[in-house]
Amino acid sequence: MLEVERGAPLQDFLFGAGVEFPCGGRGRCKGCKVKVIGGSLPFTEEDQARLSPSELAGGWRLACRAHAETNLRIDLAQWEAPILTDDSSFAFNPRKGFGVAIDLGTTTIVAQLLDLQTGHVRSVRTALNAQARHGSDIMSRVEFALLNQGQPILQKLIRDQIGTLIGELVASVRAAELNLESVVLVGNTVMHHLFSGISVEPMSRYPFDPSAPGLQLSTATDLGWGIAGNPKVYFLPCLGGFVGSDILAGVVATRLHERESLGLLIDLGTNGEIILGNRERLLCAGTAAGPAFEGARIAMGMRAATGAISEVHVRNGQLHCHVLGDSPPRGICGSGLVDAAAVSLDLGWILPSGRLAKGEKLNLAPTISLVQRDIRELQLAKGAIAAGVRILLEQWGVSDADVAQVFLAGAFGNYINQANARRIGLLEFPPEKIVSAGNTALLGAKLALFSLPHEDISYPTILQRTQHVSLNEAPGFEDIYTEKMAFPQR
Fold first, then answer.
1. How many percent of the chain have pLDDT more than 70?
2. Is the pTM of this model over 0.85?
């Protein structure tokens, strides 16, 4: 039960309970849909514009436009979202004290407290990024930061949240003298700037060059955290453009920069970031994939939480769906979207052009369906990734066959059905080359904790070897993108 003042906006208190606001609470989408099962919640103009008559009659409302004027019972539908952590073993040089590694994602945050003498993870905390109430994707955050003079708001939200998470980590460990030496954060370029107090205005316009992509060093006191010992806080540097320190950390975690053979790292999160290389050089690019793989901009999309269709299979010519949390289906997440498209292509229900062949909807479950716009969003997202990979290979002067390994990073990359990703043209590599690498950003941040005594966590060798490729300036980009948007024919 939540007690709030009469007239309070639902958005202000429902975010903490697990309700997402993909468009930042602007009433532009249906991502924050909630169902009123007790009390009264009049529908608004935005409700009428975005929800069907049957949805309105069934009690569905947009939480971002509603206010609590009476006692309400609301069905939230978005609790219990798993967040990918990391339990990898790794080589390290022991040192005294404790450290905290943080993967600051656009959607989620994961923080781990490490004993630097043993390398053991002593405590873990995960959370939805508190900034998400102002938009689910990077560009909506940038828009809020600039149009609403909201950058100080976003900065305070994330600094306070991370400070709280660190406090919880420290409090959860019973140690006589817990000496917290350092904190390492990694994240995409916008998260890097918002946390560090660097203007994101250059990220809102071409050529999208970050203001200050380098290593950011501060202390707990500087950030307003009351943490004993005043540990140093490092935000690792970005590689350029929209390719952040989470990808730099991924390079370190996969040892891409030490390999003789050619490797490819793809992070399929709310952005699509790609890096191709070996010990000689590295090429990186950020793709405008959009948040479709996270379930955003999909009519019945949601993140991988309770009630999400996460897998779709065919049995006897019929679709069968696996739903997370053993509950009735409430929507579909990215992995389910890829599966649904792949099996529907095989059944002939979706044509290679992306057009639905059997009417205006593709029914997955009694209350869940995909519409033509959803398929188009998937094509845009997968086309951007596939085109980015093709262009980096062309810039290097090699083909798919020359890539020895493909590392899929992030939660979506960890759970995606690789065969179905290949069927829709998202990945064009044979299965034996593809490795689900887990949360490489977090692993790389943990590895950085052990290099801190030398004050050298900027990885100058990697940065010097890395070239950022602006995809939209690459020869033939538009043609390649258009080609990759289509689904492969059998």
1. 91
2. no
